[in-house]
Design brief:
The complex is a heterodimer of chains A (about 80) and B (about 170). Chain A is an alpha+beta fold. Chain A is built from 2 helices and 4 strands. Helices cover about 30% and strands about 35% of the residues of chain A. In chain A, strands 1-2-4-3 form a 4-stranded mixed sheet, covered by helices on one side. Chain A is globular and about 30 Å long. With about 170 residues, chain B is of the alpha/beta class. Chain B has 2 domains: about 110 residues, Hypothetical Protein Ychn, Chain: A, CATH 3.40.1260.10; about 45 residues, no CATH class. The chains are: A alpha+beta (about 80), B alpha/beta (about 170).
């Protein structure tokens, strides 16, 4: 049983292709306070490597990355 | 010579030199992705790329010079949509109206797949403070005036771009 991460905000990028998930995520995380958590959902198979790169480049930590109902789900903690 | 400030954000310097729809995407996709990662971005629009700074984008698909371009049909059953229609470019490029058809097919396919339009990507680039530099020399050659371009564009020459690119971590010619 993995512990549940409680998100402060949810962003659904289903149906969007590159570079939209990255662009929308960066926009959404700007609205959060430092330490708050953003949950992002995507269907683009390119999202996992791109979101990892985005996390490394921006310093917003990727807490968890998983697949749920055929979608990719990410949890980021704002720097 | 390294950057003056080691804590400065990463920088991407792009040259956009082509004005067709297929070539309009890469600079704006890279620019918005880099902007979203907190990088500084500047795009130098030169030659046919300069038309991407006009208020109304008219970027089209040209079958001429895209010899390997497969065409996808944006309608019909999935099997039909997945067929790669080869474009005999020398022949098709001479068919009146073909460019319009090819352009609308590509735009519709992109839209169906969830790709943002070039207009949307340019809007996002502006929101992300991407520097859009129009080439003065190209303006002079093609007879463009400052008013022909979006107000967010700045105008500069090779030296303007090179100074910016000299401090960039990634430089690409598109």
């Amino acid at each position: 049983m993995v512990d549940v991460i409680k998100e402060d905000q949810v962003l659904d990028c289903s149906g969007m292709l590159c570079p939209m998930p990255v662009v929308k995520t960066s926009k959404a995380i700007k609205e959060l306070q430092s330490g708050q958590i953003l949950k992002m959902i995507a269907t683009d198979p390119g999202a996992p490597p791109d979101m990892e790169a985005w996390s490394r480049q921006t310093g917003n930590e990727l807490l968890r990355s998983m697949q749920e109902d055929g979608k990719f789900v990410f949890f980021f903690r704002k720097k | 010579m390294s950057k003056a400030d080691p804590n400065a954000p990463k920088r991407l310097a792009l040259i956009s030199s082509k004005g067709t729809l297929d070539w309009a995407y890469p600079p704006f996709i890279l620019a918005t992705a880099a902007g979203a990662m907190g990088w500084e971005v500047g795009i130098f629009f030169t030659f046919f790329g300069l038309t991407l700074l006009k208020p109304k984008l008219t970027a089209a698909v040209s079958p001429l010079g895209n010899p390997a371009m497969p065409m996808k049909m944006p309608f019909g059953p999935e099997g039909f949509q997945n067929i790669n229609w080869p474009m005999p470019n020398i022949l098709m490029a001479n068919v009146p109206g073909f460019e319009t058809v090819a352009t609308s097919l590509m735009k519709q396919t992109f839209k169906n797949k969830g790709v943002a339009s070039v207009e949307e990507l340019r809007e996002m680039a502006i929101e992300l403070d991407v520097r859009l530099i129009g080439c003065q020399m190209t303006m002079d050659v093609f007879g463009f005036k400052r008013e022909d371009f979006i107000p967010q564009a700045e105008i500069g020459g090779a030296a303007t771009f090179l100074e910016y690119a000299a401090d960039a971590d990634v430089q690409l010619f598109i």
